[in-house]
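Why does residue order matter? Because the sequence determines the fold. Keep that principle in mind as you read this record.
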Amino acid sequence: MNTKKLQELVELMNSNDLAEIEIEQDGTKIRLIKRPQGIVEQRVFNLPAGQPAQAPPPDATAGGIEEETGALLKVESPMVGTFYRSSAPEADPYVRIGDMVHKGDVLCIVEAMKLMNEVKSEFDGKITNILVENAEPVEFGQTMFLVESA
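Structure:
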């Protein structure tokens, strides 16, 4: 499925005031969910041939944050898009390795179909690793940051 098709689906959602739409085509299942702030969250699932379509439980990745690995927490991408460390090319990054973050702090932006989606911290902690380079594409569920719980 290409970006143009995704844009058409977002336009369909907006023009018909839909909160959620799910489509399966050629072994790929796409679910678009509009959040209250007007942000559209996209989920893409590649299905093995012959397998019935099953989406993850709705709260399994709500917000794309908070999977614990030992003493570190993962911050995952809530959607497919492009990762940006700052609000503009010349601006300072939102966070650097070693920075302390608090619940609600913006960590990065994931741009999808020309929509800039802020990814905010769901917990307090210290950034121990940034696993994605600026302007690099990210996949849904891809770990972007590792955070040591405060």
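The mean pLDDT is 78.
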